[in-house]
Design a protein that fits this description.
By secondary structure, the protein is α/β, with parallel strands linked by helices. It is 37% helix and 19% strand. The protein contains eight helices and six strands. It has a six-stranded mixed sheet with strand order 3-2-4-1-5-6, sandwiched between helices. The longest helix is centred in the middle third of the chain and has 21 residues.
Amino acid sequence: MLIARVYILRHGETDENRAHIIQGQRDTLLNEAGKRQAAMAIDVFRDVNLDIAFTSDLQRAADTAEIILKTHPRRDQITLIKEKRLRERCLGRLEGKHLSERRNQTGVDEMAESVASFLDRALSWWDTDIVEGLTGTPRKVPREVLVVSHGGFISSLVRNLISSGRIEAEPEQVTNWTCFNLSITTIDFEEGIKPRLVSYSNISHLEAEELVQYNADVLKAAGF
């Protein structure tokens, strides 16, 4: 029996995403494409019985959540929680620089958040707000939860949920850990069994022109 379903979204596109600028915890804004992407998700969740939503407190994530929820039939009953622990990893001196600079970085940046600290933050949020907060009290209907965060946060969270044994995934279920703008990752909690990854970075809800742009951007970032 399904106890809870968690939908984890990456925020919509920003100008920095389009230009391959490292954002980290810089408080950047959705561009027009990002706002359109967020609007495309409205229909995805219109019939989902959401009762709680979490979002990173950075503006690009919070605005994505608010666009999705503003016309939801249950908007007056949905609690939206802005959570600092859902922020992207702080990348110190790399923030504001082109993605290529990350490949050239040498030494330790004392201004950046360590990988260990970042993962501890992500997993502690999951353990407290999701596992303890959403599965402790039995309900007649499953809880359905929206989470809006960032690409690095989501990919790192899901990979470490699997590697730590917190959730299960089919062998080779994920072959590309890129987390696309406005993609949806779904995790189910079922009674008596370990939570499982249903899908990762699904963008089937986006319109054709957005998918074409994704393909072009992925190729460009790969150096083609």
